[in-house]
Structure of Multidrug transporter subunit MdtD:
Amino acid sequence: MSMPSTAASPSPRMLTVMLWLVATGFFMQTLDSTIVNTALPAMATSLGELPLRMQSVVIAYSLTMAVMIPVSGWLADRFGTRRVFFSAILVFTIGSLLCANAHTLTQLVLWRIVQGVGGAMLLPVGRLAVLRTFPAERYLPALSFVAIPGLVGPLIGPTLGGWLVKIASWHWIFLINVPVGIIGCIATFIFMPDSRNPDTAPFDMKGYLLLVLGMVAISFALDGRTELGIQHAAVLVLLILSLAAFVAYGLHAVRAPQPIFSLDLFRIHTFSVGLLGNLFARIGSGAMPYLIPLLLQVSLGYSAFEAGLMMLPVAAAGMTSKRIVTQLITKYGYRHILVINTVLVGLAMASFSLTSANQPLWLRLVQLAFFGGVNSIQFTAMNTLTLKDLGTGGASSGNSLFSLVQMLSMSLGVTVAGALLATFTGLIPRATAVNTLPAFHATFLCVGIITAGTSWIFAQLAPDIRRAAKKTDPSERT
């Protein structure tokens, strides 16, 4: 396998600009996702839908990203990271304009799919550019630097979304992406270093179709009963079809000379454990940004702007805690940090099952901040664990598979949350379309249990797995 090529060795200034470009990509995606979650009730009112039936707006975006991510890795190898990253920002911006002009839920879901196509290239290609450009001992601080500016999105997203809904309309939550996208396109064209693999293998279309079939089938199986009214027999058939598609891909990958994702990646212990841990832990983490704004607005009577303000402690605590992750991993190792922190994240999620209208404001703020802090530690630790031992040769394939699992689990998180809400609304006697709080309580408890149980996966790590032995100088964070 030939080494990926770069047009020129980037200067320190170019490396710094590239980090900010990738951070801008994360900013666009996180800003969009948090604004949408906060504005879902306003969208539902405008489009004549029920607030608890709007999960398709979120699922369409994240599932499309999961479906398109395998293509992004191949495109980056074939055409170069700079060209693909530029195209990603452009498509994402066009999708935002289309979403702002949607007049029905169907149109909005369709244009969210267009956004997903751009986002699918945006996230993994940006991470791949960092992975290929920085040496292994600097990758962890570089990823942390990229993630911190990216947290500006969720920091201002909910409040900005609620404010825009209050003074204008929900359409402006998509238009806000346009100026950021224009600046990102210009900066990428001028400053982004290029990297490509001149010997890119032909695209594995058969394996890709099997993966797409599996992901779409499991999503429809979990969400179809809630939104599409699919009968139980059809749900069972879809689940079996999904399992069969994933098994068929495994058999195909063993025989294919150049599979889209080589099964050899799973021989890397940190990658396999990190990937499985991400898959299940992010189901709960993907559900929470959808559930919390709905809880505040639908069950507790908050306005969109007030719900956005209540999300500030989550993002602020996440930004603060991310600064200490490197030191924690260096001192205690990945196993101890992830096992303990995964349980803490699950408990933080389950604690929302105790929410009531009479809960003191200060206690609610502490609860939100605690969840934001431990959830941020979880993300950074899982991300760096999964990617830390990928060599340059496996960077493209492993990075794309990791991004696929991230987005699939986020999509499944919203799907599971929507299905649980609908199920508990009809199952719990006290839960009705008007009194939704008992259904939210049961849903938070379930996602907390799912997340805490994921700690068993991280317990399979060797206790001495840590970051690189060389201690990173703080000045290198720039």
